[in-house]
Amino acid sequence: EDYYSEGELICIDVDRIIRQQSGGKRSIDDFAKAFFGVRDRDWGELTYTFDTVVETLNRVQPYDWRSYLQRKVYDIAAQPPLDGITQGGYKLIFTGEPTKWIKSAEKEGKNNNLTYSGGFVVGNDGKITSVLWDSAAFNAGLSIGSEVVAVNGRKFDADALKRAIKAAAGNGPAPELLIHDGELYRTIKLDWHGGLRYPRLEKVGKGEGTLDALLAPR
Fold it and tell me: Which of helix, strand or coil describes residue 201?
């Protein structure tokens, strides 16, 4: 779900702010110790509120955390919260080749991550395991559990699907997929012309950024 992914991005940005505001003396680790280390070795439940989070952050590093969290967590924004990346020494780019991490995840999951290349994840067996909201796949009617039986009239093959997506870039023909869903078969066109796209982070500038510091071994 979006709130998990965006929550991670907000945590990265919170770490950036703490590090920059404290001159590198403190980080989100200090917040974690203060927030979670209330009753050591006590496994009982301990509730908290929005105010608890704000007050704990302010003890770690004074800042207008209330306004920040209101804006980042509760207000609706058109763009994801990428400040922790873009102001932390990196920029988000998309290339036609998957990163080593994506390749490893695909191998482990026996799937093909086309989240940014049409909006879905499909297993090596053709089963769809994820569909991105309002993507080309979503708008074509693909759903989790459906099976891609054929690509452009030929038996499904993950590499053939990727070639078809790549060939559709620009003004190329939209891939035609035969879908098996329960007792029904239907043909859809994947109206995606952006080719293969995989996200990765590209270093900006020289020296260590706050994101480098966050990801460094402890």
Answer: strand
Look at residue 1 in the predicted model and tell me its pLDDT: 60
Give tens-digit pLDDT for 114-143.
Answer: 999 999 999 999 999 999 999 999 999 999
The CATH T-level fold of domain 100-189 is: Pdz3 Domain (2.30.42)
Over residues 3-32, the pLDDT tens digits come to 788 999 999 999 999 999 999 999 999 999
Q: Which of 113, 170, 178, 171 is nearest to 142 (CA)?
A: 178
What DSSP line would sit under 2-22, residue for residue? HHHHHHHHHHHHHHHHHHHHT
* Beta-carbon-side half-sphere exposure of residue 94 (alpha carbons within 13 Å): 9
Look at residues 56, 97, 72 and name the one whose alpha carbon lies nearest to residue 13: 72
Structure tokens at 181: 């869903």
Give the pair of three-digit tokens for residue 93. Answer: 């780019």
Map out the domains of the chain as residue ranges. Answer: 2-92+203-215, 100-189
193: β partners: none
